[in-house]
Design a protein that fits this description.
mainly alpha, 2 domains
Amino acid sequence: MDHALLPSATLAEFYRFALLLTGRPQIAEKVMADTLDEVESQLADFRTENNRQAWLAGRIRQRCLREHAATNGGETLSPRLLRADEAGDDPGARVLEIEAFIVAQHFHALPEPERSALAVFYLDLFTPGEIAGLLKMRIEDLAETLADARAKLQEGLRTAPSPP
């Protein structure tokens, strides 16, 4: 694949997006691989970077939601902490990883479409109008959905126990 069309920094952001939606690295990696295979076969259809990014975000979201439904029958999976051999020996990194885990748990517990709206918003690649189009909602509904998602996430984090 031509990396100028989809730079690795952009792909990393989309992987994080898939990970936020699925809560599982293996599923996020599968979604990315399947989606990138599809992108490669349809590359000529994407004339602008914005078209590519919007299409990619939409396909990743669709695949994540489909994988989620197929693997857990709609039940929400919680993100997991890395094993000691995955996290390394740095205790500071371990604390940061625990804090990120707590945020990920609360983020992943958000219902749809709040989880997707917030994840796409934090990709910081699209205007609010583009996000609304991608999620097939009115701009006013998107604003309300984002406000609800942020409030739920903040409330969950406010009541979460502190890491050890």
